[in-house]
Design goal:
Elements lengths: L1 H17 L1 E7 L2 E11 L4 E4 L10 E4 L5 E12 L2 E11 H13 L12 H21 L5 H18 L7 H18 L6 H16 L6 H17 L6
Antiparallel strand pairs: 1-2, 1-4, 2-3, 3-6, 4-5, 5-6
Length: 236
């Protein structure tokens, strides 16, 4: 259960730091509120598994005042336990445009929803491209270390594109844990304990597919080694 625990702790940390409370509406009535974390790159909001959210619900951010419509729901499962629920959404303008378009078009409209193998691979690519943007934007890492990390992330991305379909969720777990590790390590005041937790989580996620993709574990280990060298002595 080590990987599940580290992934859950990482999600708990994200909820605490960047989470927002969302009002959940169903059939025009407010049914509850829940705290979630937006992933704008992949068009989903992550919630705890126990939250009562269904396709067709309308979500409204209390702080941002943004409105989202739920179009698909997927679970991230690690070691037979659900870490978080990915609630894929469209924005209010996107929703209105789609409804208008469907009203004008008599043919059946097909919407490609996330959650299948191809969607998982696209998510991996998007997540790791975002990681490289995070590395580029940080100001307290020297360029040689930035280049080394970006090269390793690109190698990881390439390796994960080759995983078989039955390991798609495990590939997503590796990518998302790598993202959490990099984001945690590049903060102005990095949390040393959190870095260690997510670093171990990344290696454990890689071990889950090491039997069919050994390079993934090698790359993940190299990433954590670079990160450990970058931890400031005075980190918390």
């Amino acid at each position: 259960m080590r990987l599940y625990n580290s992934m859950r702790q990482a999600f708990d940390h994200s909820i605490q730091i960047t989470g927002e409370t969302f009002e959940i509406y169903r059939k025009d009535g407010l049914i509850s509120e829940a705290k979630g974390v937006k992933n704008s790159k992949e068009s989903y909001i992550a919630f705890y598994p126990q939250e009562n959210i269904e396709i067709g619900d309308r979500l409204k951010g209390v702080a941002s005042n943004q409105t989202f419509w739920v179009i698909d729901i997927d679970s991230q499962v690690i070691e037979d336990k659900v870490v978080k629920v990915k609630v894929y959404c469209e924005t209010d303008p996107q929703h209105n445009r789609r409804i208008t378009s469907e009203g004008q078009n008599t043919s059946h409209t097909v919407i490609n929803l996330p959650g299948n193998f191809q969607g998982a691979i696209l998510n991996v690519n998007s997540t790791l491209n975002n990681v490289n943007q995070v590395i580029d934007s940080t100001s307290h890492i020297d360029q040689p270390e930035k280049d080394q990390l970006k090269s390793l992330i690109q190698e990881l991305n390439k390796a994960l594109q080759s995983v078989p379909s039955e390991k798609a969720e495990e590939a997503e777990a590796v990518a998302e844990t790598a993202q959490t590790l990099i984001e945690t390590a590049t903060k102005d005041k990095p949390n040393k304990a959190m870095i260690k937790i997510t670093a171990e989580g990344l290696k454990q996620a890689a071990r889950n597919i090491a039997d069919i993709m050994p390079p993934v574990l090698t790359i993940a280990t190299e990433i954590t080694s670079v990160i450990y060298r970058l931890i400031p002595p005075n980190a918390g």
